[in-house]
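step: validate -> pass
step: tokenize input -> pass
step: predict -> running
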Amino acid sequence: MTDLAVEPDLPPAESADGRSIRIHNPADGTLVGDVAMATREEVASAVAAARAVLPAWTATPADERAAALRSAADALADRADDLAEINEAETGRPAAQAREGVLAGVATLRQYAELGPLHRGRTLLGQPSATDLMVPEPRGVVVVLTPWNDPVAVASGLVGAALVTGNTVVAKPSERCPHTGALLGEVLRTHFPENVVRHLAGDGTVGSWLAGHEDVDVIAHVGSTATGRSLAEAAARTGAKALLENGGNDPLVIDADVDPEWAAEQAATGAFANSGQICVAVERIFVHRAVAEPFVTALTAAAERVGLLPLVDLRHRKAVHEHVAQAVETGARLRAGGVVPDGPGSLYPATVLTGCDPAMRVMREETFGPVAPVCVVDEFAEGLALARDDAYGLAATVLTRSMAHAQQAWRALPVGTVKVNAVFGGAPGGAAHPRGASGHGYGYGPELLDELTATKVVHVEPAP
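step: predict -> pass
step: emit ->
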């Protein structure tokens, strides 16, 4: 086992020629394969082709666009096992969970196939002799840039909503899952006219070429805050609309009146599911002193039961471990995990830290790994205040038996989603605006159709 010293610098995940991406299996380090990156000329060609077919696709009746989306959803369902297997090989996400992600993507495509033809317009009450309308129209060419942690579900939502509203799409999956992205692109594109949807492989450079292209109308991105801000700058230069769901540093606030073992189960689920590689994972925990000791005991036991988990690659494990090491060096106590294992792959243990100061990096930045940093507070109000004090604004969870505290929390927390007494869950069809460093705009739900369309007012009256 490697001690708490920071791992050495690691090379980028690309092959020696600099023109392809090399992926290794996180579980055992074996080579998954190389994928050629798109050239600047190929990026320009894909955008030009998407622009060229835009008028015809926009003119396609809404029910025909929806039928194409349904057909693509059925094909995706048929390839769920194949996509799950490739996803596991590239990112380490267990195939059963990866398959759930694929099926979530299928459900999302089917949802947008139903919602697309119903996307609202409005008639206005003007003069009786005239007709006044507000009509939604596609924005144009949409660039979709998606992450590796749930690649099929996230891409299906953005691509599906864009296509059903009459936009054309050029998509680039994360360079950490290019094989998954390539298969998803292969499955989808055969159900649409040529060049209506294209997938390109590449790293951040390819993404920047796409985002900076003058013929792109929307940049839809799910990923890190740093990348999102770079894309927003590109959009400001070109005039494109930027739709960003970026990093989160989601707090969990635990009140004095809850069962500490149940609270620990919630915390473990929120911090360790998918190896903590979820945008709405629990990133920092504020627990009331009255239940802190039994809570930490139960959470530590849960982490020990979970054991080693796969992180997407060695670079990411290095970043996660740096947060843990810095916390321990500055006073945190390691209760479980926190030690880099020997052997191949990029495994990392479920980790619990106590005595965490809110100023530590592990509390201030998104760790995106299976790490549960705990800070003990004396009052619920103190935990709520510390939870509010953050640059991010994606989601938050509160565990309490007090309706007054629940009401206080959901009104006070400056985030897009507040969950009371459940770290995950929610009714279908919900959509939220992230805040602060977490981005802006609806990235899912029926409201995503509004983001991907522009409203035109039409006034018609007879000539004299």
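step: describe -> Residues 1-12 have pLDDT under 50 and may be disordered.
step: cleanup -> pass
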